[in-house]
Amino acid sequence: MAAGFRVLNGHVRSDRSLVEAFAQIPSAIISDNLNRMVAAGPSVRPMHKGGTLAGTALTVKTRPGDNLMIHKAADIAQPGDVIVVDAGGDLTNALIGELIISHARSRGVVGFVVNGAVRDMDVIAVDDYPVYGAGVSHRGPYKDGPGEVNVPIALDGMVISPGDIVIGDLDGVVCIPREEAESVLAASRAQQEKEAGIQAAIAGAGWDRAWVDEILKAKGCEGV
């Protein structure tokens, strides 16, 4: 196979029960339990009206302005996949629009994450179908290649391997490595319970704020 122009098959997808469990947890809490070191970057934002993204990554690496390999990914996708595209953040040409979204959706693809531009916002922006992008352009894409399907990619430093869990909400997109999913899920659930307790305290007797001064004193802050 030629590196840079190839389609790989046979990757292992994360267990669906784990995907469904993560779908109940905000991306911010998941991010906290990845030590705040994992994010698709502030430019990759929700373009759709609302709704949570939860699925397993079907990755695409393409040159800026070309969506040939995105079409191939849509053709081989399985239900529950998220098509995640590394296009280098270029916004000159839109890489996805209404037609390819409709095709992928009909095959069970649960959403798109594109580090590049999208178009047909009159459709995307009023729908709950998850589409994340870095910008909008009416200029369409080329279909020449090269590109790769099902290889590790990175969006603003967030490495995504085929089969990893991808979660998105109004705060953005986070990827949970397949091999670490169970431990991250346990830690995220524990944080959810802790924050629920804090919310209950705020609504009742109040949140004990002694920890703020304790940190300030430990760091040598004057006037505390």
Largest sheet: 9 strands, mixed
What does the average pLDDT come to?
Answer: 96
Task: Specify the helix fraction band.
Answer: 25-40%
- Radius of gyration of CA atoms, rounded to a whole number: 20 Å
| β-sheet strand percentage | 15-25%
Shape: elongated
Q: What's the SSE pattern? A: EHHEEHEEHEEHEEEEEEEHH
Low-pLDDT segments, ≥5 res: none
Instruction: Report the total helices.
Output: 7
Number of strands: 14
Report, as a whole number of angstroms, the end-to-end distance: 64 Å
Judged by helices, strands and strand pairing, the structural class is alpha/beta
Fold and architecture overview:
Helix content is 30%, strand content 25%. It is α/β, with parallel strands linked by helices and 224 residues long. The strands form three sheets. Strands 1, 2, 3, 4, 6, 8, 10, 13 and 14 form a nine-stranded mixed beta sheet that branches. The protein has a three-stranded parallel beta sheet with strand order 5-7-9. Strands 11-12 form a two-stranded antiparallel sheet. The longest helix has 23 residues, at 181-203.
